[in-house]
Design a protein that fits this description.
The protein is α+β, with helices and mostly antiparallel strands. The chain has 2 domains: 25-50 and 240-605, Glycosyltransferase, CATH 1.50.10; 73-86 and 111-180 and 210-237, Sandwich (Immunoglobulin-like), CATH 2.60.40. Helix content is 39%, strand content 9%. β10 (327-329) and β11 (336-338) form a beta hairpin. The protein is globular, with a radius of gyration of 25 Å. The model is unreliable at 1-60, 88-98, 188-214 and 598-609 (pLDDT under 50).
Length: 609
């Protein structure tokens, strides 16, 4: 029997967004206020929920400090910021604390580890990584690949580990070098450092020394290396590095977002002031649950766009919480489903719709690529295998569950893409391409560009009669999944699918006042022609960004920006569900539009238009 929330009042509609009741905006906001008054402090089966440790406060100006080092770094290197946990919760102010007086007891060394992502083609051998401390001295480094980009086999993320000693609250900037070391100066004796390089020589035979580059230490390839993602010292990279790596899709560092400053301030303010607090919510099998729209993924995108240790710790805590509270593994740990699925479930029975959207492959993939935590990889593989084995039941029964609504296909594709990203076997690629084939055929069966389906079947309380319609916000999730799939496979069909979906949204699914996208399009009993759903704009505009990225047509940015302006103004982020909704998507839109170049960009990157 499926678990139900023991504390929560019934939610309007079985397949609907709780904020999107048939009532118009005023009634919808009253409903939201009632939901806020009754926080989900209990799990879905009535047990008290464990609290996540309170997030550490953000270090001031850390992004600007780190990006300044990026500008000064030479080619082939990137600054790595080390931040030791403070002894108190107060944020550090001013420069990093000075080391103790001569003779004082130095702080103990600690293991520091981090998942370091790389753009496609940037790194093919982790032994080419080298680490230097703030004085330029080389630091022994161990590393192993975590994942590769399937299209070219280059390293997508590498786990690096080393030892450092920092006092509580202290910060230090190391330099991570990647690629082949510079050539020695002309005429220099063998083993002499390159001209301008720190004159540091490792003893012969020291760990990490490469026979083909005497005196230049590379990382030791260590396949048994274990991460320490929650150790006392966090290591983070600049937001610009994370954005360029494409580890979490296209991104724009928050510090560079001059076009939508209201989003940056509003999303942060909402998370800090949310009442009840984000981490007060527990597991729910109905309604606006804590991880709706993939909370770990949303919080990791927040971290990647800012690059500070406090946001890293917060995202990491959410990923661990999800695994501990929301996943149920088979006895052999090969399969995992959400705890809201029936306890006697087997792959012979299709996963329930509500469980498909609670299988958070993207967030668990983020956690693994950025920390190397084997528990995150285990979760991705187990959820992916459960879904792979379940595909015949999902698509071959009385109905094709994945085509009953765009959201079902989207979450299934995200989960399977995350699985393939870590285990690029041919049979997984075949399963993933099978989903893409079904998606392409689905869109082509209609003439609108939408993924047409029976709206009443998907949302009976929201549309009494709608045999052929579409959902703009669910379509946005499917486009997000298609872009993940394309990054892994290069499938050229995605371009046309995304462009057609964007054309449908801009020409047919937009409200008559052009301020929002219709909550549902094609419902015969309700046109949904009002802009009371404009906060969903932030979830949907990445479709236009993706269309621009694939076609190069800047008109998609014009459409997206106009809707984003309204979406930022109407942003409603007072619960985890709605905060995740905005955060998981809008950063990607900013990443797509950041590719605008030359004169076309000048009028769009400023705060005004």
């Amino acid at each position: 029997m499926l678990c139900r929330d023991a504390r929560r009042a019934p939610v309007i509609g079985c397949g609907m967004d709780a904020q999107r009741a048939k009532a118009r905006p005023a009634a919808r906001h009253r409903l939201a206020a009632l939901l806020l008054a009754a926080p989900l402090l209990w799990t879905s089966c009535g047990r008290p929920s464990a609290r996540v440790p309170a997030a550490r406060r953000v270090e001031p100006r850390v992004r600007a400090v780190l990006e300044a080092h990026v500008a000064a770094a030479r080619a082939g290197s990137v600054p790595l910021l080390l931040v030791a946990d403070a002894a108190t919760s107060a944020p550090a102010k001013g420069p990093p604390p000075a080391k103790g007086p001569p003779g004082a007891t130095p702080p103990p060394e600690a293991v520091v580890s981090s998942g370091v992502p790389f753009a496609p083609g940037a790194l093919r051998d982790v032994r080419l990584l080298r680490l230097r401390d703030g004085r330029g001295a080389q630091v022994p480094l161990r590393a192993k690949p975590l994942a590769v980009w399937p299209l070219d086999g280059s390293i997508r993320s590498a786990l690096v580990a080393f030892r450092a000693a920092l006092a509580p609250g202290e910060r230090a900037i190391y330099t991570l070098e990647h690629g082949a070391p510079p050539r020695p100066a002309k005429g220099a004796p063998p083993g002499e450092p390159p001209a301008g390089a720190p004159r540091h020589r490792a003893p012969a035979g020291s760990p990490g020394q490469r026979a083909d580059a005497p005196g230049i230490e590379g990382a030791v390839l260590d396949e048994s290396l274990l991460p320490d993602p929650d150790g006392p010292i966090a290591a983070v990279l600049p937001p610009s590095w994370y954005a360029a790596s494409q580890v979490c899709g296209p991104q724009l560092p928050a510090i560079d977002d001059r076009r939508f400053p209201g989003f940056e301030s509003g999303i942060e303010r909402a998370l800090a002031r949310m009442t009840p607090a984000y981490d007060a919510y527990g597991v729910s099998c109905a309604g606006a649950h804590r991880t709706y729209y993939d909370g770990p993924h949303a919080l990791y995108q927040r971290f990647l766009r800012n690059g500070d240790a406090a946001r890293y710790r917060r995202a990491r805590a959410e990923a661990v919480w999800y695994r501990q509270h929301e996943l149920r593994f088979s006895p052999d740990r090969r399969l995992a489903v959400h705890v809201c699925e029936k306890e006697d479930w087997t792959p012979a029975a299709p996963l329930s719709w509500q469980v498909l959207r609670r299988m958070l492959g993207q967030g668990m993939l983020d956690d693994y690529l950025l920390t190397g935590d084997p528990a995150a990889k285990e979760a991705v593989l187990a959820m992916g295998e459960a879904l792979r084995l379940n595909l015949p039941a999902l698509t071959g029964g009385k109905e094709d569950v994945l085509r009953a609504t765009e959201r079902n296909m989207a979450w299934a594709m995200m989960t399977l893409s995350s699985y393939y990203a870590l285990d690029p076997r041919p049979e997984l690629l075949a399963a993933l391409r099978g989903l893409a084939d079904r998606t392409v055929a689905w869109q082509r069966q209609g003439a609108s560009g939408a993924f047409e389906h029976d709206l009443h079947r998907a949302d009976p309380s929201e549309c009494e009669r709608g045999p052929r319609g579409g959902s703009p916000f669910m379509t946005a999730l499917l486009v997000d999944a298609l872009m993940d799939y394309r990054a892994l496979t290069g499938d050229p069909r995605v371009r046309d699918v995304v462009a057609r979906a964007a054309g449908w949204l801009a020409e047919r699914a937009i409200t008559s006042d052009r301020r929002a996208l219709r909550y549902l399009w094609g419902c015969e009993t309700d046109a949904y022609d009002d802009s009371g759903t404009a906060d969903l704009n932030l979830l949907i505009v990445p479709v236009f960004g993706a269309a621009y990225a694939l076609t190069g047509d800047p008109r998609w940015i014009d459409v997206g920006d106009a809707l984003a302006d309204v979406g930022v103004k109407e942003m409603w982020v007072k619960q985890p569900k709605h905060w995740n909704q905005a955060m998981r998507a809008f950063g990607r839109y900013l990443g797509y539009r950041a590719a605008l170049a030359g004169p076309v960009a000048e009028g769009r990157l400023s705060a005004g238009r």
